[in-house]
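Hey,
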Amino acid sequence: MSKLIITAAVVGAEVTREHTPYLPVTPEEIAIEVEKVQQAGASIVHLHVRDENGLPTQDVEVFRETINKIKERTDIIIQVSTGGAVGMTPAERIQPVTLRPEMATLTTGTVNFSNDVFLNRPEDIRFFASKIKEYGVRPEFEIFDVGMINNALGLVKEGLVEGHLHFDFVMGVAGGIPATIDNLVNLIHQIPKDATWSVAGMGRFQLMMAMHAIPLGGNIRVGLEDNIYYKKGVLAKGNAELVARVVRLANEFGREIATPEEARKILEIK
């Protein structure tokens, strides 16, 4: 079983300071938070950014400033989001990929997102995949339901995605696949045997899905983007608390934690 890769989703697009005072918002705050999660055990940061009003943005200059500040403090793998926020255009969403980060997300289908719709038309998906390939970035397939795996593998057949395949199963979104062990095992069986995977449980499902992933040989995403609570009614005092808990669980199972450099080797990031 390979070492465990922990991804920290530190900001997101939906959570605000009204939900939790511990959310980092400015480039400097995000960089400080990323340093903390790496020290706690994360090797990847899943990165969204906010504008001067604290609203989600895909502006390339805000990403550039934030990434530069992160690199001043850490050697963590930076994975930019191409999801952005609901309602953004593909042209808006693709902007941070032009900075040539090591990784970027690639959602391979449309999903109801609570009362909204996260729209990813086939032509949009191919657009994202082609740009990610053009800039030499390792994609992470964001899978909100089982049919999206077939869409992802179709991109591979078309030559739009090459090299090592890595999937992130986003489970528990209202409108997406429910966060159950049966569904997780089914998702694992649908991907190629030499692919790697992680799981992101939404809200109260974050801890449960993390506990399943460790002995199954998968990897884990945690963070305030997906869950603001440490336990029922108790806010997590930052992303590092959520990362540190996964490290403790992994230690109980005897599973070692991957450093950023070890994660690069596992994911075949050059």
